[in-house]
Amino acid sequence: MSTAEDIARRTAGPEWVGATAEQAIPVLASPSWRGVDSTLLRLRRPSGETCLAKLMDEDTDAYADISMAFKAASQASAAGIGPKVFAADLAVRTCVMEDLSPEAGWTTATLDRYSDRDTRHAVIAAKKNFHRTAPLGHSTNVFDHVEKLMAKCQSAGAPVPEDVAWLASSVGEARDAIRASGIDQVPAHGDGNVSNVMIASDGAVRLVDWDLAGDMDPFEDLGSFLLEAHDSESDAVESFEAFHGRYDRALFNRAWLYGIADDLRWGLIGALLAGTSRRVTYEFLKFGDWRFLRARMGLRDPRFSEKLGRV
User: Fold this and answer.
1) What is the CATH class of 4-104?
2) Domain ranges of the chain
3) Are 43 and 21 in contact (CB under 8 A)?
4) pLDDT in tens, 121-171
5) Is the torsion defined by CA of 292, 298, 302, 305 positive or negative?
6) How far apart are CA 311 and CA 306, in angstroms?
7) Is the CATH number 3.40.50.300 carried by domain 106-308?
8) 237, CA 20 to 30 Å: which among 67, 97, 122, 270?
């Protein structure tokens, strides 16, 4: 049976046959869902040249479409929005890409880095630039994803909170309000987790981990970022204006509701993997509980009903 290292070298190509392989990053399910979707190996040739091989874990099938993730990563690569993709082989679930390493001046984004206005604007610009690329051919939205995850959690007996039905019902109200007002669709990253942004020493950013990518409402893409990057709505207005060009209360409400729904989605993903994954040492439930809490806070906010009436 081929090892992960063998698969990585073969996918990278014949020039990498003699490369060494090492774990690229530590996997952290909580607090940032970093590296959870895959085994990420750094291949290093005797010359010192490196690349990353991402071998998608079977757990990721529970919440993502790997073929779409690879397509979006390749499209982002071509547009200079994500790391360069050198090879992708769906048969072995492996994507080989540019190594955005500390050696090359790259670091993974943190919430502390998001306190910097220029960094936030660079992330927003990258997302908007991807919105201008070609459609991915896969229409998706967080509300449908929540429904599918709810069914999977129920079937698996996943450890969801007692109020999960209320959480889903309340998010369903947001779904109905937004759909009644109509939406546009653009190709989008779809993932607001801070660990899915890489920052260079010169302030440039690249978006990574395209597991939730698809054609969606651009304000859905924005909403997941807003709730990750900001502690309050008032703080988020400036980022919204950077995205939209001006403040619009209805569209801001829409983005914020999408962000709440995204918190519920990730809570369900954490619970589902806590109940089904063979990787029992990862803190899936801890991550899920945090996201459930954030969704609960948003839904219990007195302004939630007001937002439903104006999206």
Assistant:
1) alpha beta
2) 4-104, 106-308
3) yes
4) 999 999 999 999 999 999 999 999 999 999 999 999 999 999 999 999 999
5) negative
6) 9
7) no
8) 270
